[in-house]
Amino acid sequence: MEEVFISWQAPEFEHREKGPAWYWLSMLVAIGVMALALWQKNFLFAVFVVIAEVLLVIWGDRKPIFIEMKLSREGLQIGEDKIYNYQDMESFALDQKHESEWVGMVLKFKQIIRPKIKIMLPRVDLKRIVANLSSLAPGVKEVELEESLTDTVEKIIRF
Hints:
The chain is an alpha+beta fold. The protein is built from 4 helices and 8 strands, in the order E-H-H-E-E-E-E-E-E-H-E-H. A hairpin with a 2-residue loop joins strand 2 and strand 3.
């Protein structure tokens, strides 16, 4: 049995509320792009735009489920079956720019081909979680958050 130092439940992703105007604007953009595709006689792209818009509307309305997360001697455990070992981690950055009850933590790994992951931390337990992570994995340093283009676009379109 592994020793758990701290555990918390957090949403699987950062949810941003979207009003009716967001959905109407999304549909107008999709109709415009589809009209351009049809004018260019690119029927396959027009079908792709329709499929993409349907998925955007479905996923845009989805609420996050809450997942159990734990810091143990082995690493960061997310859910029941996913463990990220500390020796594979290079650094972490905290996204605290907006006032909410959740703070995003971006974990960067040593392997170049391994993508970064972002997990949510409760703001009330933030100091305890970071202190536990620092003591369990002294080689994993906190760095300044570098927002990617994808993160910026995601925030602009509220997805």
